[in-house]
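ok trying this again, last paste got cut off
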Amino acid sequence: MIASLELGELGVAFLIGGALVTAAALVAGYRLAARFERSRARQRQFVSDASHELRTPLTAIRGQVEVLAGEERPAVAEVHRVGEVVLSELARIERLVEDLLDFSRLEEHASLRLAPIEVEPFLRRLVEEAPAGGIALGELPNGTVLADPERLTQVVRNLLDNAKRHAGAEGRVELSATRHGDRLTVRVDDDGPGIAPGERERVFDRFHRSEAARGRDSGGSGLGLAICRAIVDLHGGRIWVEDSPLGGARLCVDLPGFEGG
């Protein structure tokens, strides 16, 4: 009788355990399916956004070529003008394609090659190499930060390029950095129109366009800040926007792994 009772209780335990395992499997399956569906939705949105961004310069190229083709004997000046427009739009497509490929690799959780980077000479070199020039250097700490040199270069260059394109009439841009314990905060300021509080999180979305001068004709691909966030996230850091003392926007990147010199 006792043995029979024990076997019965064991059977009930097995049934309960089996039911719990089944329920857990169903929940895991549901979560996996939901994640897969979200991934598919993001992929569809990404393809839609990319198609829209590529269609704009292609339409401009087609329009210019059609104007030229409609003239029986176009003037040399007109041919040069159309050529300049086409080359400009092709360069825009090239930048967009490069950014699309880069962003795709980052979304696939690209690995980082971490190394200690001397912060002061690293940031100073990026300012000196900036193609547009005219970037001021603010406070820079002595020490190293553990990061991927190539990817961190990409972040800082994107932020400097973004600031230069949207700076105000005086074109003021400043790069600075400070330490807080074992963390490094890099700041890029400009004197442009700034970014409204309601836009400050959305500017890191793919292809997002704000209402102010940060618009479609500013020369960017619409992916620069999204790429910055993806890289910063991989480093375990964060990126955000706030008001700049120069009157425009301040973009901040906070990274772990800083060691003071």
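PB: full thing came through this time. The CA atoms of residues 42 and 115 lie 32 Å apart.
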